[in-house]
Design goal:
The complex is a heterodimer of chains A (about 425) and B (about 180). The longest helix of chain A is centred in the N-terminal third of the chain and has 94 residues. Chain A has ten helices and ten strands. In chain A, strands 1, 2, 3, 4, 5, 6, 7 and 8 form an eight-stranded antiparallel sheet that branches. A two-stranded antiparallel ribbon of chain A has the order 9-10. In chain A, strand 1 and strand 2 form a beta hairpin. Chain A folds into three domains: about 90 residues; about 120 residues, Mu homology domain, subdomain B (Immunoglobulin-like); about 140 residues, Lysozyme (Orthogonal Bundle). Chain A has about 425 residues and is α+β, with helices and mostly antiparallel strands. Chain B is α+β, with helices and mostly antiparallel strands and about 180 residues long. Among the domains of chain B are: about 30 residues; about 100 residues, no CATH class. Chain B has five helices and four strands, in the order H-H-H-E-E-E-H-H-E. Chain B has a four-stranded mixed sheet. The longest helix of chain B has 26 residues. The chains are: A alpha+beta (about 425), B alpha+beta (about 180). At the A-B interface, helix 3, helix 4, helix 5, strand 7 and helix 8 of A face helix 1, helix 2 and strand 3 of B.
Chain lengths: ~425, ~180
């Protein structure tokens, strides 16, 4: 730019000179015309020189520019080359690292394998070798493992399935599990002890178990005692003569029985069982029978006319029952009843020490669904054991008290503060 | 590849464990049933609470010695004299026709009732003046021809009716006055 626009100082002075000379104030003619031509020529030459110089300068500029761009391109290229070299180097390092890692792992695995083999062989000869084989031949080992798991399960299932059964009862989701075992080999010529395990988490009035005597065997005995009709051995888990309102709950028991035989029974021993569902106690039934008092009024207690639903209470009948059920203590019971309830079978005291209320002739607790001694601690039931509705089995006030005293208190009467009215301290 | 190896090592370990378990089960050293527990029927629920916890406390204090004496008299009867036996028959003739037990006499203060099954004449006291009423009842028996000895030996038995509490908080005795 500077180069293009600036003229040399010398040329500028000459031009100035030419301008001065060509002014109209200078009247020269022919000689002056030649001079003019020469001057023009010089001027022309000068211009040409200037143009040439300009072109030269331009060319220099272009060359410089080209050089500059060349330099730029080279820089990028070298940078690229450098990056490529570094990337290659990184990859090589990575690969080396991976190789090193896998080598370490391989070594570790080999060491582990050696350890397993040695350890296994120490525990049981051949176990370690088997482990080594499993590591070396994983697919074969996998098949062996699957077979080792499956086959024993199948065999065990086949062995026990004939003697084991389970069932889901409807309604509560409780399940009964009955299983048994009988060493068949021992029966041959001798006595074998067989067993049946029964577990049931729910409640039932009874669970009945029976098993057919295997051919070629003879029934000897059982614990608990079973009934045997010559063909079938049967148990009732609640036992003979169950108490009123008795029930089974959370059963987990074993029945043992002994068989004698001359040969090994070929067939398995199928167990049959059934659950007798538990039925609610008589209390609600009694309430439904007569919920009004025998004098027409409504008894003031939560259980209505629980004590005398048939309106058959009188002291004479009570005396008869006392003499029959506990003759040695009949007068004592009579005195205690007079004190506790003044002979009112519907007597009710909400402020009992138990907090549940005291009911009936002997002011006992409301009936509970129990199978232990507390099943007799039930006062909100019929006073009369002889006039209970059929199918109802919650005991009666008098008999509950007698049973509670005899079985639970060993005859001490200590449940009743009114024992003092009978002269008992 | 490395992951697969691990898997197989685990499988190997599992296999070893299974073999051990199966061997132990087969030899019966694990899960062998305890013989004592097998021959029992279900045990009853454990007893909870005090069996002899009194459920009610009577509002009346009873004379234990007198009560004991009365029970002994009931259980071991002293035979009545003939005159007392006759008097007893006279008293029982007051029962409603055709009945061998029940209410013999009723007043504002007491009821007299015969319990055939226990052979007892019982007096139910209906108001709080216990001793006065007892005396009144004994006088009634004497009026029927029963001697004091007969009242004591038979024995005439007293008890408190519903809601009856001695006036002075005295100790109650089922024995007739003068016995």
């Amino acid at each position: 730019m500077d180069i293009e626009n600036k003229l040399p100082e010398e040329d500028q002075s000459e031009e100035q000179e030419n301008n001065d000379r060509s002014s109209p104030s200078n009247p020269s003619s022919n000689g002056r015309g030649e001079k003019k031509e020469a001057k023009n020529e010089v001027k022309q030459n000068k211009k040409e020189n200037i143009d040439k110089n300009d072109q030269k300068a331009k060319g220099k500029d272009d060359a410089l520019n080209q050089q500059h761009s060349k330099d730029k391109g080279l820089g990028l290229l070298s940078k690229k080359l450098k990056a490529v070299r570094e990337a290659k180097r990184g990859e090589r390092l990575k690969a080396a690292k991976t190789l090193a890692k896998s080598a370490i792992k391989k070594k570790v695995l080999q060491a582990a394998k050696k350890g397993l083999i040695a350890g296994g062989n120490t525990i049981a000869p051949g176990l370690g070798t088997a482990t080594g084989f499993a590591i070396d031949h994983p697919k074969t080992a996998a098949i062996i493992v699957v077979l080792a798991i499956t086959l024993p399960i199948i065999i065990l299932t086949m062995v026990f399935s004939a003697f084991t059964s389970s069932l889901n009862t409807s309604g509560e989701g409780d399940s009964v599990f009955v299983s048994g075992s009988c060493p068949h080999d021992a029966i041959a010529g001798g006595v074998a002890e067989c067993s049946i395990n029964v577990s049931y988490p729910g409640e039932a009035s009874d669970i009945l178990i029976s098993i057919d005597l295997p051919p070629g065997t003879e029934y000897i005995d059982s614990v608990p005692e079973a009934t045997f009709d010559g063909k079938t051995i049967s148990w009732s888990l609640i036992g003979p003569n169950p108490l009123p309102n008795a029930k089974l709950s959370n059963v987990n028991t074993t029945l043992l029985f002994h068989l004698r035989g001359s040969g090994v029974p070929s067939a398995s021993l199928p167990i049959a069982y059934s659950i007798v569902p538990f039925v609610e106690s008589e209390t609600p039934i009694q309430e439904a029978l007569n919920n009004s008092g025998c004098d027409g009024s409504t008894p003031n207690n939560p259980h209505g006319n629980f004590g005398n639903p048939n309106c058959d209470f009188n002291k004479n009948e009570l005396g008869k029952i006392l003499r029959r059920e506990d003759p040695a203590n009949a007068y004592k019971w009579d005195a205690i009843i007079a004190c506790e309830s003044t002979y009112n079978p519907n007597a009710y005291n909400p402020n009992s020490s138990s907090g549940k209320g005291a009911y009936g002739l002997l002011q006992m607790n409301p009936a509970q669904q129990r199978t232990d001694i507390y099943r007799f601690d039930a006062g909100n039931v019929n006073w009369n054991p002889d006039s209970r509705p059929l199918g109802v089995a919650a005991g009666a006030q008098v008999t509950n008290a007698i049973n509670y005293n005899t079985i639970g208190l060993k005859g001490s009467f200590k449940y009743w503060e009114c024992r003092k009215a009978a002269g008992i301290r | 590849m490395i992951n697969i190896d691990k898997k197989y090592i685990l499988l190997g370990a599992l296999f070893l464990t299974l073999v051990f378990v199966l061997v132990l089960i087969a030899t019966g050293s694990v899960g062998a049933p305890v013989a004592e527990d097998q021959s029992t029927i279900p045990t009853q629920s454990p007893i909870d609470g005090n069996l002899d916890q009194a459920n009610t406390i009577p509002p009346v204090t009873y004379n234990t010695d007198a009560s004991k004496k009365q029970i002994e008299k009931k259980e071991n009867r002293i035979p009545l004299t003939q005159s007392d036996l006759d008097a007893k028959q006279e008293i029982l003739s007051l029962l409603p026709e055709g009945q061998s037990y029940g209410i013999i006499y009723s007043s504002e203060n007491f009821n007299i009732e015969y319990v055939e099954s226990l052979d007892l004449i019982k007096v139910e006291i209906l108001s709080n003046s216990i001793e006065d009423i007892k005396t009144e009842a004994v006088n009634w028996f004497r009026d029927q021809g029963l001697s004091q000895e007969g009242v004591c030996n038979y024995p005439v038995d007293f008890y408190l009716g519903s809601g009856v509490v001695p006036d002075g908080g005295e100790i109650f005795s089922p024995i007739a006055p003068g016995c």
